[in-house]
Amino acid sequence: MSETGYDAEFLLDLYRRMVLIRHFEERVKYLFLEGVMPGTIHQCNGQEATAVGVCAALEPADVITSTHRPHGHALAKGITVHDAMCELFGRTTGCCKGKGGSMHLGDLAKGMVPAIAIVGGGIPIATGIGLAFKMKKEKRVAVCFMGDGATNEGAFHEGINMGAIWTLPVVYVVENNLYGASTPVSWVVRTKTISERSAIYGISGFTVDGNDVLAVYEAAKKAVDRARAGEGPTLLELMTYRITGHSRRDPALYQSEEEKKKALENEPIGHFAEHLLSRQIGDQACLDRIVTEVDEEIEAAAAAAMAAPEPRPEDTLLDLFVE
Length: 323
Prior knowledge:
Blueprint: H1 8-33, H2 48-55, E1 63-65, H3 71-77, H4 81-88, H5 122-135, E2 142-147, H6 154-165, E3 170-176, E4 179-180, E5 183-184, H7 198-201, E6 204-209, H8 213-228, E7 234-239, H9 257-265, H10 268-278, H11 284-307
Parallel strand pairs: 1-2, 2-3, 3-7, 6-7
Antiparallel strand pairs: 4-5
């Protein structure tokens, strides 16, 4: 990990974004356990560096697609805690007016297509967005987040092949957390890395430490710059680990205690905090202040969401696309 060329403000902002995602997910978990929040959730605890590192490399006009585990991507791309929290509560003040919920979180005004819960479903969508950018001669980039489980879907191969043959400005980001739900990736992928598959399509591919936010940022910046310059797609594999179950009802018994312990030792926020402190980029009081500010923001958002109005039945007839 190296901070060469980065100012303290940028580095501390990366830290803040990761803390925001982690604490948002923790607060949401307890809101569900308390029975005050509807629906279900798939959380990204432990994967904060992938969302933050990639989105830090993007311009506001760039667009991302997400998955059934979208909270981190949404917050990293600029959706506010207030708008995200209201959406999870199904309120009209949410980013999708309460119609999307957890698995369909997004806001096109912030450059995030409402998340697609179908595994691999965002891959052809991101490819199509990249095609639109190219046809309109816009210097914009589409980024497609996916889990390792999506890489064996037909949409993965079809979408990336299209992106490759048309040299589209798309970055395909695989958040490899070692499990597709409860199935180890080693059971379903024969190659040493998923990024090796890039060679099949004749595009660039990298595997980096997804728990190192600067490594993620640097790899993503390289891929995004290539895409924006007209050099085509990149398959970017980020090795990470979710320190939570697949969904809120999953006790994750398939993860060994030794594996969980190692994951906690390598989780990205503590890792980055140690790095900042060792380089005297801020001090412990500075980092503690960031945590306090984040917690206050999240609590205010939760209170506002619980007080916000619910959609009316007739609101289902609004915001429809009719030919």
